[in-house]
Amino acid sequence: MKKIVKPNTPLMEHMYTADPSAHVFEGKIYIYPSHDLDHDGPSTHEGEHYSMEDYHVLSIDDFESPCVDHGESLHVKDVPWAKKQMWAPDAAYKNNKYYLFFPAKDTNDIFRIGVATSSKPAGPFIPEKDYIPGSFSIDPAVLVDDDDKAFMYFGGLWGGQLEKWRTGVYLPDGEGPADLEPALGPMAAELSEDMLTFKAKPQEILIVDEEGNPILAGDESRRYFEGPWVHKYKGIYYLSYSTGTTHTIAYAMSKNPQGPFVYKGTILTPVIGWTTHHSIVQFEDKWYLFYHDCSLSNGVDHKRCVKYTELKYNEDGTIQTIDPYKG
Ligand code: FUB
């Protein structure tokens, strides 16, 4: 009998998956996760234990259906510029094509963001020969807005190398701001019509508190760490992200896709495992949070599993906090 996906349980148990980017394409929900490798190597601050090599696309017809693994859609060996660590991807549809955006380390061990295309949402995806010029760091998330303009949001601290780009060039010893300085925000860049390049240099997104003051680097329960996602609800842009060291998914709201975004609160309380990474998608008349935890491996940080749960808004547009382990 086919196994129907239930909320807050792993979508897939035959492999480890993480960082789910969910989209509705062709009437189904397609999920673009990282594919965690089942190894027992050492963990490092730079995240070398996240040593992924390929991507699989998953789909569900609806929430009464089993999850389908469409097999390998792209492997690092087929990406001319990439050496290792195929981290959190995202996908977008435009120009009658599907685009897979993905970070990986280049031959100099610097994270860059690449793009691959396909005529089908599940791939296989054909990569461009080089990474997106001017791209850096990790965790691309692409919003194709109602007017068809596309924005990429990206960036992650620590292993994601965002601190090393503060001057605009890569400094191997580059450090983040001091605790009382404004935190680093995610980067955003509008994509060209063909989705293969940035229209202009990526700009940092500012996240502020209700008084308009920038969230500070030492404010670890609210500051941006990695895993940006931008969605639109009732004409307002929502930027949600991982707070890293404090292990939550937080969010901020703006009338403009390039911010500034006003911090609003927590969407997801800490899950089993160090990392937390998510996406938010509307399917029919409900909204869903896709996320991962490490329950399938009993808590091994780099052996994660993708799950989903319903996401609800309050009357004023704020989002209700989710504890995935509470009834
Ligand atoms: O999966 C590798 C990295 O872990 C992602 O890029 C981060 O967002 C974190 O989930």
From TrEMBL:
The record marks 139 as: Important for catalytic activity, responsible for pKa modulation of the active site Glu and correct orientation of both the proton donor and substrate. The keyword tRNA processing does not apply. GO terms for molecular function: hydrolase activity, hydrolyzing O-glycosyl compounds. Keywords: Carbohydrate metabolism, Glycosidase, Hydrolase, Polysaccharide degradation, Xylan degradation. GO terms for biological process: xylan catabolic process. SUPFAM superfamilies: Arabinanase/levansucrase/invertase. Belongs to the glycosyl hydrolase 43 family. This is Glycosyl hydrolase family 43. It comes from Neobacillus bataviensis.
